[in-house]
TrEMBL record:
This is FMN reductase. Residues 4-149 form the NADPH-dependent FMN reductase-like domain. Gene3D superfamilies: 3.40.50.360. Residues 175-196 are annotated as: Disordered. The lineage of its organism: Bacteria, Bacillati, Actinomycetota, Actinomycetes, Kitasatosporales. One of its GO terms (molecular function) is oxidoreductase activity. It comes from Actinacidiphila yanglinensis. Keywords: Flavoprotein, FMN, Oxidoreductase.
Length: 214
């Protein structure tokens, strides 16, 4: 069955090297796994994200973007590096998403920057972010500095893109198909689709049951 792959890119320019890297990763993954690919440009949602942070209520198009991410079978997340970390726009978007909604979701992380010195942003900022969200981050993260787009660095970048795409495609292939009719993701916003419903027994009731058994 065709998987749903969502690409979130936080590039601000047009054209954007962040979007270019996102497209290369999506194309490479699509060659290895049958997937419908949807790209979400966060710069087009900047005002919606800011309003949601203030009011707590998402606009319809921000709600659609969040629903797309939380109902996806896989995610590619790409940000430019600002002040040694992911961009504020990138972080704000994932702050909007319920912290339980990405549990178990395969994620490929990537970033762009002016110099290779910022490549550690992938490990000290992005990987911990998605680990906190309990996503499954592929082993290979992809960073593209300005020199990686030149002919001398293009081959090495292509190799990293291919390796990361292969890892994401493998996770997509291993991910169980969603039941028919489950195109909108979890019934409850932010609730992972694969979490079984469990009745929550109040602690006092549990203690009372133990006392009876004793």
């Amino acid at each position: 069955m065709t998987k749903r792959l969502v690409v979130v890119t936080a590039g601000l320019g047009k054209p954007s090297s962040t979007r270019l890297l996102a497209d290369r990763l999506a194309t490479a993954t699509g060659r290895r796994a049958e997937a419908d690919i949807q790209v979400i440009e966060l710069r087009e949602l900047a005002n919606d994200i800011a309003q949601n942070m203030v009011t707590g209520f998402p606009s319809p198009r921000l709600r659609d973007a969040v629903d797309a991410v939380t109902s996806a079978d896989g995610l590619i997340a790409v940000t430019p590096v600002f002040t040694g970390s992911y961009s504020g726009l990138f972080k704000s978007f994932f702050d909007v998403i319920d912290k339980e909604a990405l549990a178990g979701l395969p994620v490929l992380i990537a970033a762009t920057g002016g110099t290779a010195r910022h490549s550690l942003v992938l490990e000290h900022a992005m990987r911990p972010l998605f680990a906190y969200l309990r996503a499954v981050v592929v082993p290979t993260a992809v960073y593209a500095a300005s020199e990686d787009w030149a002919s001398d660095g293009a081959g090495a970048l292509a190799g990293r893109v291919d390796r990361a795409a292969s890892e994401l495609a493998a996770l997509l292939g291993a991910r169980p198909d969603r039941p028919l009719g489950d195109s909108n993701g979890p019934e409850e916003p932010g609730r992972p689709a694969d979490v079984d419903d469990m009745a929550v027994v109040p602690f006092a009731q549990q203690l009372a049951a133990l006392a009876v058994e004793g």
